[in-house]
Amino acid sequence: MDGMDIKELGRLAGLDLTPAQMRRLAPQLAAITRFCGDLPAAGNVDDVTLAETVVPAPDAPGVERPLDRPVALANAPELAAERFITPSPLPDPDAP
Amino acid sequence: MSWWRRMTMTQARGAGREPVAGTGAMAAAAVREGRTLNAFTWLDPAWMPPSVGQGPLAGFGCAVKANICGAGWPNDCASAVLSHYRSPYGSTAVARLQAAGGLCLGLANMDEFGMGSSCEYSTYGPVQNPWREGFTAGGSSGGSAAAVAAGLAWFALGSDTGGSVRLPAHCCGIVGLKPTYGRVSRYGLIAFASSLDVIGILARSVDDAALVLSVLAGPDPRDATSLDAAFAVPDPGLPVRGLTLGVPRDLTDGLAEPAVREDFERTLAVARDLGLKVVDAPLPAAADAVQTYLVLAAAEAASNLARYDGSLYGGTTEPGAGSVGGTAFEQQVTATRTAGLGPEVKRRILLGTHVLAAGYRQRFYDRAQAHRKVLTARMQEVLGVVDALILPTAAEGAFRLGSRLDDPVAMYRTDQFTVPASLAGLPALTLPTGLDARGLPLSVQLVGPRLGEDLLIRLGRALEEALDFRSRKEAPWHRLP
Predict the structure, then answer these.
(1) Pick the residue with more confidence: B54 or B98?
(2) Per-residue b/e over B264-299, b at no fewer than 16 CB within 10 Å?
(3) Cβ contact (<8 Å) for A9 and B350?
C-alpha cells in the first residue's frame, strides 16, 4: 500500500490519518497484506473441491495408526449447503 | 495464603466454606490490589445484592469482560470511543449468571474491542501477569484471566474470537473454555467479528468451567445464532480409557521453544498413561489459518465498528478548525473515530476495508472464505475419526510487555494454534500443564467436535487430576496473602 492508498482507505473507514500515522502504518499494513496475501487460490468459494483419497480402514482393537492420508470430502454442492457453521446474525437494533 | 484465592468453587463447597464470604474478601482485595494488576476497568460498588439468591452459582463472585453488557454498566470495551457509555440493557449471559445466584464484581480489562493478544491495547493500560510483573496476561480477555489467577474472582467471563479466552488462560495458568459457536447467547456481547465471537469462561478448574457453562448454555430467542442445545455437567468418574487424541504433528513439530516441546510431549505421555490413544492427525489446511482468520475478522470488524460514529454511543469529538471535506456531520464522524479508536483497532479497520474493496475482495476475502470452508470440513472429518485434537495453546509462555507492539504480524502469529477451532466454530479447552524455563505457565488445548464440550470436560478432568498443576507453590493463588 502506498501513502495515497492508506489515506483513501482511511477516508473510506472514517479515519483522518496524519502524515506521521501514515508513515508508521504504511510498512505495518504492507507487511500484513503481504502476510494475508500468501493465501493460495483454493478455487471458487462456491465450488471447493479436493482430490479424493482413501479413508483409512478401521483398525483392529489396540492398534494405533496415524492418519497419514487426507480424508475424502464431499463435493462442492454439499459443502455449499451450509453443513458447517457460517451464520450471519441479523443486526440487533438495541445493541451498540 | 487465603482459602478464597486457593480453592476452586467445587472445593469450597465440599469444604463447607461460605462462597459469599470469599467473594467479599475478593472484592476488598480487588480494591487494594486493583492498580497493581490493572485487571479491572470498573468495580461495582453495589455488587452485593440485598440477599444472595439460590442456584448453582449462589454467592460466587465473578469478573465480566468489559464488552459483555450489564444494565447500567460502563461497557466501554476499553475504548475511548465509548467513554461515558452506560449500557441500557444487560446481556443474556449476565442475566443467567445472576439468576443462578452469581455475583458480578465488576468489568475486566481487555484489549480494545477484543482486538489483541496481549491486553496492551487497552485505553486503561496493560494488564500485568499475576505470575510475573512485566509480562503479558494474554489477550484479549487478559483482565478476566488475571483476576481469576490472582484470586480476585472465582471465575470470569471472557470473549473468544481467535483465542481470546484460551490464550489468557494459557498465560495465567488457569482453565479456559471456548464453547461451540452458538452454545452461549451473544445477546449483549458487543460485536467484534460476528461469525467468530463466542462468550467463554475462565475458571480455576475444569469442573468450575463446566458448572458455569451449564448455567450459560442454551437457546435464546434474542440471538438468532444460538443453538437449541443445553449443557449438563458430565457425571464425575466417567472413564476416558480407550478414547483417541489426535495430534496435528504438522503444526506441533515446528515448535521452536524446547520447554514447550518437552511439556507437550510429557502431557502426551500422561495421556497415554491414562489409557488414551494418541495418534497423528495432520491438519495441512491449518497452515494458513492465521491469515484466513485475520482477513475475515478484520472484514467483519470493519463492518461492525462502523457504528461508532459519535451519534449513538459514547462521546463526540468536534472537528478541528482545519478539517476539510465532507459535510459537518461527516467531519464530526471522522474526528470522533480518529480520536476515539486506538492503533490496533485502526489497523484492523483499515485492513478490513482493504480486503473488502473492489479489486481486492477476490484475492483476500473470497480466498479466506474458501480456506475457512476447507479447514472446517477437514477438522470435522478428522474429529469423526479421533475423539479430540490435542495441541499446545501457544508456541511459548507469556511474553514481555512491549516486546511485540512494533511487529503486528508477530503478534498475530501468537494465535496460530487457537484460530483453527475459532474458524471451524468448534469447542476448545485450555488446561495448564507446566512451567517454562522462566517459571511462566504452559498449557495444552483440547479441541472437540461440535457440541462436544462434555467430552472435553471428561478429558480435561482426567488430565487435570494427573497433572495436578493447581498445587504448584509458585502459583499466585498460593503466594498472595
Answers:
(1) B98
(2) beebbebbeebebbbbbbbbebbbbbbbbbbbbbbb
(3) yes
pLDDT tens digit sequence for B260-275: 999 999 999 999 999 9
CA distance B275 to B281: 18
User: What residue spans define the domains of chain A?
Assistant: 3-36, 41-83
Residues in chain A with CB shorter than 8 Å from the CB of B366 are 44-45
Measured in degrees and rounded to the nearest 5, phi and psi for residue B341 equal: -95, 140
**Can you tell me the distance from the alpha carbon of B162 to that of B167, in angstroms, rounded to the nearest whole number?**
9
The β-bridge partners of B389 are B246, B447
Q: Which of B223, B323, B408 sits opposite A89 (nearest CB)?
A: B223
Give the sign of the dihedral formed by CA B342, CA B348, CA B353, CA B354.
positive
Q: For residue B128, which phi and psi values (nearest 5 degrees)?
A: -90, 145
Whether the complex's predicted ipTM is more than 0.85 is answered with no
Nearest CA-CA partner of B422 in B302, B303, B301, B286: B286
Q: Are B246 and B388 in contact (CB under 8 A)?
A: yes
- List chain A residues with CB under 8 Å of B280: 66-68
Amino acid code (one letter) for B205: S
> pLDDT tens for residues B141-199?
999 999 999 999 999 999 999 999 999 999 999 999 999 999 999 999 999 999 999 99
Question: In B, which residues are within 8 Å of A87 by CB distance?
Answer: 182, 195, 224-225
Question: Chain B 398-437, CB below 8 Å of chain A: which residues?
Answer: 408-409, 412, 424-425
Asked if residue A83 has pLDDT above 50, the reply is no
Across A62-70, average pLDDT:
36
The C-alpha cell at B266 is: 510429557
Residue at grid coordinates 451498540? A96
Interface of B with A in 439-478 (CB under 8 A): 450
pLDDT of A63 > 50? The answer is: no
Question: How many CA atoms within 13 Å lie on the side-chain side of B204?
Answer: 29
By C-alpha distance, the chain B residue nearest A41 is B367
Enter the pTM of the model. Answer: 0.89
What CATH topology corresponds to B3-245+376-479?
A: Amidase signature (AS) enzymes (3.90.1300)
